[in-house]
Write a structure and sequence with these properties.
single chain; 205 residues; mainly alpha
Length: 205
Amino acid sequence: MNALATIHVAKKELGLDDETYRAVLVRVTGKSSAGEMNEAERQRVVEELRRQGFKRIKYGLEGPFAKKLQALWIAAWNLGLVRDRRDAAMLAFVKRQTGIEHTRFLRNPGDAAKAIEAMKAWMAREGGVDWSEHSYISDWRRQPGARIAIAQWAMLARANAVEATLFAFRCHVEDHFFNPLETMTAREWAGVMNRLGERIRAMKR
């Protein structure tokens, strides 16, 4: 959250009426509007409001596109592309692509698509993930988790860590998750990705 937004949240949390609020602004900076201040002045106001009892608010990921972006970021981490799996690192990526600081402010589908497609293109280019929608692709291979797991398997195969066949991939998944690939859920594919991700990260150390 930037300083201007923090000031407005603090005003509400502390229950300051307009007159009291403006008096604080003038006392700290000589200006009666936070919008007229520079960033250093706003930070001084934030510190004063904290001194008066405002608590720093920590936000988790919010917004209609947050879960999708987080899932893609973790998938990129499991592909060995992302070094820092924390949400803060993902938010920095989103800001670079969209100019928007947090997923809770990411409401426009066009803006979200910039970050989503950039991440998918990166995963395709450097991770080998096949996002194509050819009619001949099996239904189970259309699941995002399956696409990523297949790319992970190919990475391991290039390092001679596994056998480079779809049959070997099927046997590995079904032996560990006790389900045919055709019935695997998104949650189960996440488990496959996490398991293979551990091997990829170990291999890259």
